[in-house]
Amino acid sequence: MTGGGATNHRVNLPIAFGRPNFSDEEIEAVTRVMRSGWIGMGQETLLFEQELAAAVGVGNVVSVSSCTGALFLSLVSLGVGAGDEVICPSLTWCSTANVALYLGAVPVFCDVDEQTMLATPHSVLAKVSDRTKAVIVVHYGGLALDVAALRRVLPAHVAIVEDAAHALGARYPDGTPVGASGNLTCFSFYANKNLSTGEGGAICCPSAQVAAHLASLRQHGLASDAWARYSQPRQPFALQGLSELGYKLNYTDLQAAIGRVQLRRQAEFAARRQAIADCYLDAIARDWPRLRPQARVGDARHARHLFAVRLPLENMTCDRATLVSTLRAKGIGISIHYVPLHGMPLYQPQPALPVTDFLADRIMTLPISASMSLDEARYCWSELIACLATHGGHP
Question: Which PANTHER family match (predicted)?
Fold first, then answer.
């Protein structure tokens, strides 16, 4: 994916579902790190972790190579293993479930609320068994689930891990930033995310002790990383005292340099994403109220990573696939988030989930990013309602 932003005065086709917004400042930051001679995990990474922790309002952040790696290490640190069950919604990307499989655990899928598209305390609690070790909740689209309400109903031994791949900058209904709940919370810095470094992720940790354990796990279980040994020559030899199986999941200073600039630009990005979302919301209310956007949760602040809508199939003469292919042919990056997981062979197909099954062929996501212009959002909307009208729908 390429960076750059369109202006408010033209439409650049194709309009990607989500593209990063990079400026000369990100390019200069990468150049600075390359010229330093140290491009692996080092001082830049440590500064990025500290700055992200301060932005979120949490004491400790550990950066890793992806959000998948963040979710995986979170389960490792919680002791999830063979035979354990990990509950998660079926309406999510496969990483959420796969990290349980990596450890020999069983993903158990729960339903979501039709309006918010989020798991609920009731839907999670319905799947809890004696084998449940953890729940991975998904802040779908950037809308924060009320984790405090979930914690109140869960048995004390069941841990909560938050998949916040979409939710950097979001806030829970009580106003607390996502990441500062006290749960292990995992962010993504993939190419289309609200903060993009191409790849990468991070874990917000409840304690320095947990953070130190995760930092060791991301580097083969070593007590010190290459930067620590380089900057502190008296550090012991790398493999001295190795006692725990770890992994190679670290971040790099090249990525962190981009991330530090992107972090400083989050207010700018959030304002643009909200402006695009408001453009869509106003247009839906005015032109096509049967097209249902993802509902809000109280006063929760939406990060606007996705703009998901529910199609009124009962009022249409075509299916979603026809609509999506027609719009993509016009250069509009319509997408689908997601094909539910609970019917897929990999996960030993599980019982029906009524709401998820209802949403499965109705949900669709409109392009939204900090690189989009309002003219591009208006173009997307005009082509969408023209397509709906052509296929017999009505507002």
Answer: DTDP-4-AMINO-4,6-DIDEOXYGALACTOSE TRANSAMINASE, TRANSAMINASE
CA distances to 145, 283, 321 from 117, in Å: 10, 21, 20
- Other beta carbons within 10 Å of 141: 23
pLDDT at 97: 98
Is 242:224 a contact under the CB 8 Å cutoff? Answer: no
Decide: 389 and 292 in contact? Cβ < 8 Å. no
**Do 239 and 293 fall into the same domain?**
no
Nearest to 82 by CA among 100, 58, 108: 100
**What sign has the CA pseudo-torsion 228, 230, 234, 236?**
positive
Q: How far apart are CA 120 and CA 182, in angstroms?
A: 19
List active site positions: 193
> pTM for the full model?
0.94
- Domain count for the chain: 2
| Phi and psi angles of residue 193, each rounded to the nearest 5 degrees, phi first | -80, 170
CATH number of domain containing 200: 3.40.640.10
pLDDT in tens, 302-312: 999 999 999 99
Tokens 């209904």 locate to 173
Domain co-membership, 290 together with 234? no
Domain that holds residue 326: 266-390
Q: Give 76-96 as a DSSP string.
A: HHTT--TT-EEEEESSS-THH
Amino acid identity for residue 91 in this structure: L
CA distance 4 to 99: 33
Residues 144 and 48 grouped into a single domain: yes
Are residue 258 and residue 154 in the same domain, yes or no? yes
